[in-house]
Amino acid sequence: MTAATFAAAAEAVTDLVRRIPPDAWDGPGLGDWELRSLVGHASRSFVTVSTYLRSPADRVDLTSAVDYVVRMRDYAADLGAADVAERGRQAGRDLGADPAAAIEALASDALADMAGAGDPVITVIGGLGIRLSDYLPTRTFELAVHGLDVARAAGVEIVLPRAVVEEAAVLATRVGVALGSGETALLALTGRTVLPPGFSVV
């Protein structure tokens, strides 16, 4: 199901990007990013799958998607917001003159690279080893969340498959629990309270 859910998220996002109006690409995206940079950042969910599949690891350092997200949360904090933002801008520039075609090609490449790959241990950022099946839900999460971000910024509707939303929401909840915010999220989800300003699990 993990690979199938990732493929469903990839299809939803590539369809969304095809429908972005030409005059929206240089408009607002998210935070300091214009829309092109936001889409570029989302495209890294495809790029990293292909890249990491070519980088096998000889040990497992991260045993779940939750472990990965928590570790990368700390990594991003150490890296700094400016560096993360610039990576997104560079990824947007890398999409070239036809970003929709570029996104479609990157998604196709990632799915082709996954076909027949099995469940290898791959090397991710920081030189850490994780099984592909544990890494893919983090990419589905990124595609789901940033797909929604792109849709809102571009004024274009996206309908995420139920399995995609479920996998992303479950991962977000489990990360919240791992970070000690599970009770806060549970109370908000059941209408007992509202989330604090700026609350996030990423």
TrEMBL record:
A Pfam family: MDMPI_N
Q: Which Gene3D superfamilies match?
A: dinb family like domain (1.20.120.450)
Family annotation (SUPFAM superfamilies):
DinB/YfiT-like putative metalloenzymes (SSF109854)
- TM stretches of this protein: none
Q: What is this protein called?
A: Mycothiol-dependent maleylpyruvate isomerase metal-binding domain-containing protein
Family matches, as InterPro entries: DinB/YfiT-like, Maleyloyr_isom, MDMPI_metal-binding
Q: Which domain of life is it from?
A: Bacteria
Q: Which GO terms describe its molecular function?
A: metal ion binding
